[in-house]
Design a protein that fits this description.
By secondary structure, this protein is an alpha/beta fold. The chain contains 18 helices and 21 strands. The chain has helices at about 5-10, 15-20, 25-40, 45-50, 55-65, 70-80, 115-135, 165-175, 185-190, 195-205, 215-230, 235-240, 255-265, 380-390, 425-440, 445-450, 465-475, 490-500; strands at about 95-100, 105-110, 145, 150-155, 160-165, 180-185, 210-215, 245-250, 270-275, 280-285, 295, 300-305, 320, 330-335, 345-355, 355-365, 370, 375, 395-405, 415-420, 460. The strands form four sheets. It has a twelve-stranded mixed beta sheet, with helices on both faces. A four-stranded mixed beta sheet has the order 2-1-5-4. Strands 19-20-21 form a three-stranded mixed beta sheet. A hairpin with a 7-residue loop joins strand 4 (about 150-155) and strand 5. Helix 10 (about 195-205) packs across helix 11, helix 14 (about 380-390) packs across helix 15 (about 425-440) and helix 15 packs across helix 16. The chain is globular and about 60 Å long. The termini are far apart.
Length: about 500
């Protein structure tokens, strides 16, 4: 009997609770809010905002302001210096280092012990629960998991307190039993130099019976390519014949899917997307035939949503989960068991279903181009690129785009820098198809492109091999969970990238 079949019942019992997502979503979310408010009632924040486990949602929303990182930064910094009972009970020792804000290079997101277990690890567990349900013949536990992680460092030199990539925090605190079924070894996984780490991971992992992968698609691909170089094999399934699933998240998978399918040719390979961030674990793709993910509604996260057409208002409408509609773009607001209260995370989603609540990520609230009223979002860009790749045989590794407000000829356009892993036979065809696809997807973009009056056809600049890795390295963001900003409404990022493309 395989080890997977022995372990499977441990995960199967959770399916009954996940089935409640279809019928008890509002009750589950109200229960989460009650637990959060009750536990935080005696914190400094809780006392200041009248928290009580019996506080209604309406009163919670009335008494607690919406917050960005800037509003909570002072509280978080005090927590990092060792103060307890500030935003969450007790002393929070872990801080996930995330991409910065306008004013700071980095954000430091508190990760409490509660948040680790009732949110982050819960998400990893449920990924396995749904995967085993969908794949009754799986032998995932009969081999090793290749799990990529970042690194961590001391936090203000306080004993036992660290800052780092969320993935490093998860590896540091993981149940010791999990280490028996994962590679690489902990010391390798937490190395800070990604290039050194990539080589060591490849050397350690290629000797193992790897059955599953977990990580960010871009960084995992870099490791897998190194495995191929060292092994001399043509396909990854020649190195790991029992490989069956890649649990991925962090960036959209569509630009990378072709590369993975070319690298892994076994028909039994599966891919499962997750929506996990420094702030929490929010979604899982429970149905392999549906790109939408299920919102995880019984973790330590209470959700609210701001319609994007009101996002810039001083007092926007905010609705709880049971108040959302399908087909609308929302900015997500979270309250968590790590002390983030009505926190605007910066992600934008669109619900495809309310029974159960399923959604797709459509972009970032600050990752868009709207220089000329075109309202281009990341979801549009990903779909346009996918169509251009499909019709030209190209594969995109990385990209970023920004507006050109007016050149010497008085022309306005979008400028894209694209690094291909497989170039199209004809760049001009790729540009034309991408531009036409964006017009079909986005009516505002189409209107602005009408007869080239407001907006001319996009310009594509081919990035040299390794361009975006070099940009990340220059920013000290190579490896971990860092990713390239896709769309920017100003030219700051694209000018930095272009300066390296020489």
């Amino acid at each position: 009997m395989s080890l997977t079949n022995i372990i499977r019942p441990i995960f199967s019992h959770r399916l009954c609770k996940l089935d409640l997502y279809k019928t008890e979503a509002e009750a589950l979310q109200r229960g989460v809010l009650k637990r959060l408010l009750g536990k935080a009632a005696d914190t400094e924040w809780g006392k200041a905002h009248g928290f009580d486990k019996n506080l209604s949602y309406d009163d919670f929303a009335l008494q607690t302001p919406l917050n960005t990182y800037e509003e909570l930064k002072g509280y978080i910094d005090r927590m990092r210096h060792g103060e307890k009972d500030v935003l969450w009970p007790g002393r929070v020792r872990w801080y996930a280092k995330s991409s910065g804000t306008t004013n700071d290079k980095s954000k430091f997101i508190p990760v409490s012990n509660d948040g680790l277990h009732d949110t982050h690890y819960a998400g990893g567990t449920d990924a396995v629960v749904w995967y085993l349900r969908n794949n009754p013949k799986s032998r995932i536990f009969d081999g090793k998991a290749l799990i990529l992680g970042g690194s961590h460092a001391p936090n203000y030199n306080l004993q036992g307190s660290l800052v780092g990539d969320l993935s490093a925090i998860l590896i540091e605190n993981i149940n010791p039993l999990v280490n028996l079924v994962r590679v690489p070894k902990k010391a390798t996984a937490l190395l800070s130099d990604f290039e050194v780490k990539r080589d060591r991971i490849a050397q350690e992992a290629m000797k193992q019976n790897v059955t599953n992968l977990s990580g960010v698609p871009s960084w995992m691909l870099s490791v897998l390519n190194r495995v191929m170089e060292l092994s001399g094999k043509q396909y990854l399934n020649e190195v790991w014949p029992n490989l069956e699933v890649f649990f991925h998240g962090g960036v959209a998978f569509s630009p990378y899917r072709g590369q993975y399918e070319r690298l892994i040719t076994s028909p039994g390979m599966h891919y499962m997307e997750s929506y996990n961030a420094s702030e929490g674990f929010f979604g899982l793709q429970d149905d392999p035939t549906d790109v939408a993910m299920s919102l995880m509604i019984d973790y330590g996260v209470f959700y609210e949503f701001i319609p994007m057409d009101e996002f810039d208002k001083k007092e926007p409408t905010v609705v709880p989960l049971w108040g959302v509609e399908t087909g609308c773009n929302y900015a997500m607001v979270i309250s968590t068991s790590s002390g983030l209260w009505r926190y605007i995370i910066g992600d934008m989603i669109c619900f495809t279903s309310r029974d159960p609540y399923k959604f797709i990520i459509t972009g970032r609230t600050k990752s868009f181009i709207n220089a000329f009223g075109e309202e281009l979002i990341v979801d549009n860009a990903e779909k346009g690129l996918a169509e251009a790749c499909r019709r030209t045989g190209a594969e995109v590794l990385e990209y970023t785009a920004a507006p050109v407000f007016m050149d010497a000829d008085g022309k306005c356009r979008h400028q894209w820098v694209v690094e291909f892993s497989r170039e199209p036979d004809n760049i001009e065809d790729f540009v034309r198809i991408l531009d036409e696809s964006l017009q079909q997807i986005n009516s505002d973009y189409e209107a602005k492109r009408y007869k080239d009056i407001t907006l001319q056809r996009l310009e594509l600049i081919k990035g040299r091999p390794g361009l975006f890795n070099d940009w990340l390295k220059q920013k000290d963001k190579l490896g971990g969970q860092h990713k390239v900003p896709r769309l920017c409404n100003n030219r700051d990022i694209i000018e930095q990238v272009l300066s390296l493309n020489e």
